[in-house]
Write a structure and sequence with these properties.
With about 190 residues, the chain is of the alpha+beta class. The chain has helices at about 5-10, 20-25, 85-90, 110-120, 120-145, 150-160, 160-165, 170-175, 180-194; strands at about 30-35, 40, 50-55, 55-60, 70-75, 80, 95-100, 100-110. It is about 50% helix and about 25% strand. InterPro entries: cNMP-bd_dom, cNMP-bd_dom_sf, RmlC-like_jellyroll.
């Protein structure tokens, strides 16, 4: 079934009845996007939540100087959306782009909200998922303050080995708050120390 992966993801946190799973799947659609294709463009309102069945995406914003700053990556079994834009129904400050050809499961935010009022277990699932996401973001913010650049990179490689091998180094550098040149120095040093 085309929704097996998303249902497995949900079952890690909550159990739905077969009828609830079927009703949830009725709200889903499959969306495929090609490498370098935008899923969300800055200024557009994000109306959907996406689960990555296959592929890799990145969320980033462009500052006033035209520099890209990576905020988030998503690979198989991860979710991606613009939480601010989606919940506030406001124009997004971010872009979401495919780094690889990707297959996504899409659910409309309004449909999801309605479903969560009918099935409280789904509200619990998303609360737990958002908590995990907030913890990760909080930890990243703390690391930017107390870890050296090298420590942040080593932690990233250890915590997310699948990302470290799939994402271009310039995007990892941006995610870690480093210039590409400084990142190259750190990357070479870390590889030499292994």
């Amino acid at each position: 079934m085309q929704y097996d992966n998303i249902l497995r993801n949900i079952r890690r946190y909550v159990l739905l009845t077969p009828a609830q799973e079927e009703a949830f799947c009725d709200l889903l659609t499959i969306e495929t996007i090609k490498r370098k294709e935008l899923l969300l463009r800055e200024g557009d309102v994000c109306t959907d939540e996406y689960f990555v069945n296959k592929g890799c995406l990145r969320q980033y914003f462009i500052d006033k100087k035209g520099l890209e700053h990576n905020l988030y990556f998503a690979i198989e079994d991860w979710w991606i959306s613009d939480l601010y834009s989606r919940t506030q129904m406001a124009p997004s400050y971010c872009n979401i782009i495919a780094l690889e050809d990707s297959v996504l499961v899409k659910i409309n935010h309004q449909s999801l909200e309605k479903f969560m009022t009918q099935v409280p277990a789904m509200e619990r699932f998303f609360r737990l998922s958002y908590e995990q996401s907030m913890v990760s973001q909080h930890l990243k913010n703390l690391q930017m303050l107390y870890m050296s650049a090298e420590e942040r990179y080593v932690y990233f490689r250890e915590r997310f080995p699948a990302l470290a091998n799939r994402i271009p180094q310039k995007h990892i550098a941006s995610f870690l708050g480093l210039t590409p040149q400084f990142f190259n120095t750190i990357h070479a040093k870390v590889l030499r120390s292994k």
